[in-house]
Each structure stands twice: as C-alpha cells, then as structure tokens.
Design a protein that fits this description.
The chain has a single domain, classed as UDP-N-acetylmuramoyl-L-alanine:D-glutamate ligase. The strands form 3 sheets. The chain has a 9-stranded mixed β-sheet, with helices on both faces. It is an alpha/beta fold and 292 residues long. It contains 9 helices and 15 strands. 30% of the residues lie in helices and 29% in strands. Keywords: Kinase, Transferase. InterPro entries: PfkB_dom (IPR011611), Ribokinase-like (IPR029056).
Length: 292
C-alpha cells in the first residue's frame, strides 16, 4: 500500500504560438507526480495512468526519475492542442485531438492507497461508480478541472458538473479555483461556496484564489492561507496540481490544514517561476515560507 496514489492520464500537448510549435507531455498526473517526487520519500507515492502503448516515452522518463508508475493500455493518448494568437496567454483556442479510455474499476482492483488523487482532464475520465469504489478503499481527492470540460467535435466546452452530488458525497479532499467554485456552487463568496461543498459531502474543501492566496475549510474552521509573491511569472501550467501535491503530502505527514496550505502555496510560487513541472527541494519551499 502507498500513502498517495494519483490516477490520471498523461497528455501529449501541442503548443502553437505565432513563432513556433512545441510538443510536450502534460496533464494533472504528470505535474502532480513530478512535484511529489521532489519531496523527501517519507510519504510513499504511486501513479496509475493510461496511454497508447506506442507512445510511452514520458512514462519511461518518469520511471528513470524514480516515480512508481502503473501503466494501462489505452486506444489513444489524450492529445491537447493549445493555439495562442498573441503575447497574451489567456487568448487561446484549445482542441482535443484524441481522448484516452476512461479508467475502470477492474483496472484499479489491485491498487491500494490511503489517498487516491484523481487527476481528471475531461468530464468522463472517472465515472461516479469508480469514485464510489475508490472511496471504499481510501480517501478520494479530486481536482475538479477536468469534470468541467466537455469535448464536442474536438472543441472543449465549459460545462457544469452533472454528477457532482453523486461524486462529492464520496470525496474527502476537493480543490477548486475561483471560477470552478462559482460554476459548481453558483456562489461568488468563497466561504459560502465552501460551506455548500461541505454540505454535499466533502470533508476538506480547498479553494485557491490566485494572488489572494487560498481558503481551506475543515472541521467547521476556515483557514486563510497567504500567497507568496514570485520573483517573476514564467509558466502557470500545472500550478494547481503542484498545490495539491504539496497539500496532500503535508496532511499525510500530520500537518494542520494551515501548515499544509502554506507549504502548497510556497511550492506554487516556485513552480510559477519556471517552465515544466516543479523541480526544486523542500529546503527551497521552507525558505519561501520563511520570507512571509
């Protein structure tokens, strides 16, 4: 049994800008796994993913880096195309050129962990039945982003989460950002949203608020977590996944929600300052936290 098992697809990402086209691996599970692999190994970790068996080079690299990966065969690898038309990275068109097969209960029968972190990329990656099954074996952690993406004719459309009540009653940790929070709950106030999400069954609610920090609700208590200002913002891709990795890592070490939130926020600050997944050490994280 491992302490944390992340389950999710690794993607092929095609990044098109006016000046160049770049191909790289990505996805929630990719950024989460690399982030947690940089931390001391007193918390054990495994990754369950699924790809086209002819396209497993990213998994080979992860294994060489010391990450424990269980690879399932899929008819396709998730293939995202992000096309940017100017300097503003918010101005983009996103297409899904290929979808991987959803995860199934038989694939997860032999997987044992205290916490299962579900890295959803698209709305049908994890059925309510899969989440319910995993909740009988351990605590389920969800980053909600993928549940709010639907693909039609290769285009990605934002959608409400149709099965949210079925899934959230089996969810222990839930992380959302401001936009996702409002989409799911209809609430603009983070405290009101946290209370509603808790009433739907979530034990620990984590709401990230960008430069305003984050808000955590656990055991009828709100914890306000500061944001640590980066020296420069280079790449925000994978920031939320890095936060989840840091938060779960510290919570499983016995840290309080506030301590875990600060640790996760410091990891995000470091991640913002460079391209690619988190690549620094716990010493660097603690140094950022000491500057607050």
């Amino acid at each position: 049994m491992t302490d944390i098992c992340c389950i999710g697809h690794i993607t092929k990402d095609k990044i098109v800008t006016p000046n160049r086209t770049v191909y790289m691996a990505g996805g929630t599970s990719f950024y989460f796994a690399y982030a947690i692999n940089q931390l001391p190994k007193d918390i054990t970790f495994s990754l369950v993913t699924a790809m086209d068996p002819t396209e497993t080079e990213p998994v080979d690299r992860m294994r060489k880096a010391g990450i424990n990966v269980m690879l399932n065969a899929s008819r396709n690898t998730v293939f995202f195309e992000n096309r940017y038309f100017g300097e503003n990275q918010n101005e983009r068109k996103q297409r899904v050129l290929a979808k991987a097969d959803p995860f199934t209960i038989p694939q997860l029968k032999d997987v044992k962990a205290k916490v299962y972190h579900l890295g959803s990329l698209l709305s049908d990656d994890f059925s309510p039945e899969v989440v319910e099954y995993l909740a009988t074996k351990g605590r389920v952690s969800i980053d909600v982003q993928g549940y709010l993406r639907e693909v039609r004719d290769e285009k990605v459309y934002p959608v409400d989460w149709q099965d949210k009540l079925k899934v959230l009653k089996n969810t222990y940790y839930l992380k959302v950002n401001e936009t996702e929070m409002e989409t799911i709950t209809g609430k603009k106030d983070p405290r009101e949203a946290a209370l509603l999400l808790h009433s739907w069954g979530v034990t620990e609610v984590i709401i990230t608020l960008g430069s305003e920090g984050s808000l955590i609700y656990v055991d009828q208590t709100f914890y306000e977590v500061p944001a640590y200002k980066p020296h420069e913002v280079v790449d925000a891709t994978g920031c939320g996944d890095t936060y989840s990795a840091g938060y779960l890592y510290r919570r499983l070490q016995g840290a309080s929600p506030l301590e875990a939130g600060k640790f996760a926020a410091a990891m995000c600050t470091i991640k913002l300052e460079h391209n690619g997944p988190f690549n620094r050490t716990q010493k660097d994280i603690l140094q950022i936290m000491g500057e607050a």
